[in-house]
Amino acid sequence: MTNLRDIPSVDRLLTALAAAVPHLPHALLRTLAREEVDRLREQMRQDDRPAVALLDHLIQRVVARLDSDLRPTLRPVINASGVIIQTNLGRAPLSRAALEAMQRVGAGYSNLEYDLDAGSRGSRTVHLEALLCRITGAEAALAVNNNAAAIYLVLSALAVGREVIISRGQAVEIGGGFRIPDVLRQSGAQLVEVGTTNRTYMRDYAAAISERTALLLRVHTSNFRVVGFTHETSLAELATLSHERGLPLVDDLGSGTLLPTDAYGLFPEPTVQESVAAGADLITFSGDKLLGGPQAGLIVGRRSLVEQLKQHPLARALRVDKTTIAGMEATLLSYLHGRAIQEIPVWRMIATPLDELHRRAEALVAQLGSTVSRVACVSTVGGGSLPGATLPSVGLVLHGGDAALSRRLRLGEPALVARFYDGQLVCDLRTVLPEQDADLVQVIQAAL
Ligand SMILES: *Cc1c(COP(=O)(O)O)cnc(C)c1O
């Protein structure tokens, strides 16, 4: 029965394919043709012969591969995990205003580096700088690719071959293998750790300062909490000390927030404005954590220092593109218009009242029937901010939900990422955008 010699040659298959899908690149068809011919040979060696003619079978297989292979691998996901800022799921969803700005600017040309008034070359840094200064009270600002890049630029520009003093409790790993001591080394600065893991005093910093010191660095320990017998030197104390000694104080805020988190029942996360007011000379933070914008690293602080950063060759390598600037500008404008809570998705999620989540859950249960029910659960902020802080939330329990159902949801269209909570499969509604509720119903129905 099985006769390997009946398998059409790659060339014969290619000729048939070139007639069936003539617009597709030949090199792509050749690769797929080779792979499918090999696969068929393997299959027939197992005495498994397709029911249809071999050439037709191969054409069908290649066409099916085109459907799956030529689809974007980056896809939208409904985040029902209850973690608002989930790095693996792309951190902050963008506001409508940010998306519209990115679309407007990205679809055509813009005055990215062009002074429309003078009709001559301009600077891409002006678009975000004034807004960041207005919001934070800083003198100057610069945006780069992400906060890791921001820290790298600051250390490269200010501390190469010199010492950076940091509390032992803050020489930490942020996540994804990003370790403060490694970044320091990579940038050519030398790390001087002072104090102990749980207690560091002003006198520890003072004793470590020498003519080799470039700056003092404070890192917000954003993804864990040290509790109990602890002491951290305050930012204001560090500012006093560093300024007495003529050194800059750099504050890596991590998430950074422009709004007070304690207004929503969360621990107070230090705001960027507080850092500026406390006297930090440069402050770095992420654009896509609690700020709620596109991926970026934002640096605000003293004009003379920010100018040094702008002049550094690395600034060119780390610069942000026009769509990021457009999205960030729109996001910052939401803050200045006092509409951040309504317009920026991460803040809308944080601020959503429990009764609104209950109402949505009820409507979803009505559509999905007795396979689901409403349950109280807790969300977290995530994204290296507010470690240990939780928000009360409402979810849907999928009855009998197991690992297999969880996988079917993940492979749904769109994908749905739920989580196990007390042994039950739960969709936390706080992190599902309200406009995704209809999709949520459809994906759950399909998976059940
Ligand atoms: C998240 C974080 C970083 C890295 O920021 P990215 O924007 O992810 O590059 C650095 N420092 C701290 C304290 C952080 O929390």
UniProtKB/TrEMBL annotation:
Main enzyme class: transferase
Pathway of action: Aminoacyl-tRNA biosynthesis; selenocysteinyl-tRNA(Sec) biosynthesis; selenocysteinyl-tRNA(Sec) from L-seryl-tRNA(Sec) (bacterial route): step 1/1
GO biological process: conversion of seryl-tRNAsec to selenocys-tRNAsec; selenocysteine incorporation
Sequence positions bearing N6-(pyridoxal phosphate)lysine: 289
Domain L-seryl-tRNA selenium transferase N-terminal per the UniProt entry, residue ranges: 4-41
Entry-linked HAMAP family: SelA (MF_00423)
Name of this chain's protein: L-seryl-tRNA(Sec) selenium transferase
Originating species: Oscillochloris trichoides DG-6
